[in-house]
Amino acid sequence: MTAAPQTMFKPGKGAGEPVGLAILGYGTVGSQVLRLIHENSEDFLHRAGGPLEIRGVAVSSVEKHEGSLASELGLLTTDAESLLRRDDVDIVVEVIGGIDYPRKLVLEALEAGKSVVTANKALVAAHSEELAQAADAAGVDLYFEAAVAAAIPVVGPLRRSLAGDQVETVAGIVNGTTNFILDAMDSTGASYDDMLAEATRLGYAEADPTADVEGHDAASKAAILASLAFHTRVTFEDVYCEGISHITAEDIEAAKQAGQTIKLLAICERFRDEQGQEKVSARVHPTLVDREHPLASVSKSFNAVFVEAEAAGRLMFYGNGAGGNPTASAVLGDIVGAARNKVFGGRAPGESTYANLPIADFGEVLTCYHIDMEVEERQGVLAELAKIFADNGISLRTVRQEGGEDVARLIVVTHAAKERDLQATVEKIKSIDAVQKITSVIRLMEN
Amino acid sequence: MTAAPQTMFKPGKGAGEPVGLAILGYGTVGSQVLRLIHENSEDFLHRAGGPLEIRGVAVSSVEKHEGSLASELGLLTTDAESLLRRDDVDIVVEVIGGIDYPRKLVLEALEAGKSVVTANKALVAAHSEELAQAADAAGVDLYFEAAVAAAIPVVGPLRRSLAGDQVETVAGIVNGTTNFILDAMDSTGASYDDMLAEATRLGYAEADPTADVEGHDAASKAAILASLAFHTRVTFEDVYCEGISHITAEDIEAAKQAGQTIKLLAICERFRDEQGQEKVSARVHPTLVDREHPLASVSKSFNAVFVEAEAAGRLMFYGNGAGGNPTASAVLGDIVGAARNKVFGGRAPGESTYANLPIADFGEVLTCYHIDMEVEERQGVLAELAKIFADNGISLRTVRQEGGEDVARLIVVTHAAKERDLQATVEKIKSIDAVQKITSVIRLMEN
User: Which residues does the entry assign to the active site, renumbered to this chain (chains A, B) (predicted)?
Assistant: First the structure.
């Protein structure tokens, strides 16, 4: 009989004892974390069980932050390693960003017996195993609520509230930049390039928007969500990732006509393959969502995570998925949790990978395709195409033909089929003379 | 300096050690809890840190449950008190319902050092103080996630995820029966009586729907939500409560025309009175909600809890707020949490009432009125009415007049004002000869 990972236990230091914090990084999140702890110290005292005392804030340059609260309080230091090792530091808060440097610091902190609170999705998605092992070895906590959808409680609900349930699916709008762009395209009919420019102008997109628009940011979150939902380690490399830069105003218009909208979704599923083997998959791609679905109404830069579980049924968590304050809210919730354990003893649930389900190859995953193409307007073309779908074992849900002069527009929506077979079918269709152009291929979410 | 309530700490029994459960009640929830633990025992072993072993299921009549799983497993007993006192019982699960009898059993269990998981909103809303004190005295956990909105994680997020934030407002659709009725009235235009009958036919309403339609059920949940959100003890008696039985098809139609819908909301607020004193209020009443608001799209018997916090901004939690399986999901999440603490040591956050804010009289609360009335169609009436609002210090947001033969319909929406002043104003208006009828007065949610 296997037991849960952690067996080590440390008693608390006792109610009323101070809890020392080291904050690594002083950007939009770190500065809000410091400000809120400073302004609400009385509340934190009661909620954590003892006063939260900031021992220092590590930055790359002290000059850069002159006049800031951290500077006024004399907390700034460039020596992160000495700070996190201090005996009077119990919790290390990592809000630097990036992977290699924070990874080094977080591992050092855990090994030094400090609990760690991080908002770093890339770090957690890439190195969950060594981080979890270091935390377990030291018997301390590793919290990362802010790593997924900022202020929206997702990690906690999956780890705790749904700990007695079996999660089947997680489908999330977990990137505000891409949701802003797609929502703006949907409401204005404008092009991707124009709305990306608008997002950049309004500060929703960074100078280099690649990580957002190509889905890499969402893929990190998908890995974390799948790991939590299925008690299986899923990393960034395991996630199929497709961005939104190829989505056109025409795609959005076609979706509208079909009563749908296009969202960039992080989809995590547990399913059984033909051999009855249970597997998990995590993927990120533009998805046609029925306007009746709760996810369809998530507008602007808001995030939402939709969960379907065996007993709970359908749940959705909605809110601000980015920004200094919303991220600080999640970080502070984690700080209180970690501080409570330092004061009263006990540990938060650690990484849970006991189910250790195989991760499906993307080709095996069941998806639905929405194929928009231009075909010759002549007899027999539809029959020819229908045969190709049939030969590849793909059954069709709807076929819509809009006649033109000598070119007809054909929109085909398939039933769920193996991604591999759908891709092969599209390749085959491309090779047909009668098919002049495949305008778009977008996957569809089955309600 | 005051410390958090609990100071007592019990080390865990150690990983792999069995955790004994006593289930009190075997109705729709209890039977699903037993089934799911039985079917997923391997999962629970890993998630709780040790095997969950059911010691018994207490019922009023063993015969009544012959042939059930509990009966097959030989778990049924009518002696709840002996069961919950057994040395090999660590956690007592109360899913009986009612107040007095479960209250007695839960207190006995806590005093006997057992952690308690309950789904009983009425019990928690009426007796939170003595339950919390008994749990603290014994150093055990009292969990009640299922008491509010069943499967939707609300208690956990308010206690943990938002523990570092300052909650300003909680507005929830926390009663599925009334939401089903109002949503059905909205989509069909039918009357309250017809849709109540429909809800009863479909099993969404009980034979005696009073507790649901008059808002008592929602009021219990409002008390729990306000207590958690504001770290102040708010009980059922503190909640202003108004049901939906007086809502007419005409009210719904008028709301539609104004781009709104009517929802029964449990509203919990933190605000400052004229003297700058911070106060809290909790109330339940039909509310006009703008169709753009996330709560407006919550259809059928679904529940949703909308939270506004200082740093997190706007959050919403959506899902199934009732039913055997969704409620069991929440109960099981709590069981895993309580079991982990028995195995690894540590305690869940207990009741937090340190803020101890005064509870505002409903008359002091700021609300907005939507007043629909019939007035004589003659000069000067509007001026006369406007003067009354002005004299009572009420400023108007919108005034809409629909002329008739000699009777005009007048719809007035006020700005936020003291509930007391608004009530007085309506009384004054009633006394005017020119006002033939006040069709309806419904409060409005400010976005």
Answer: 221
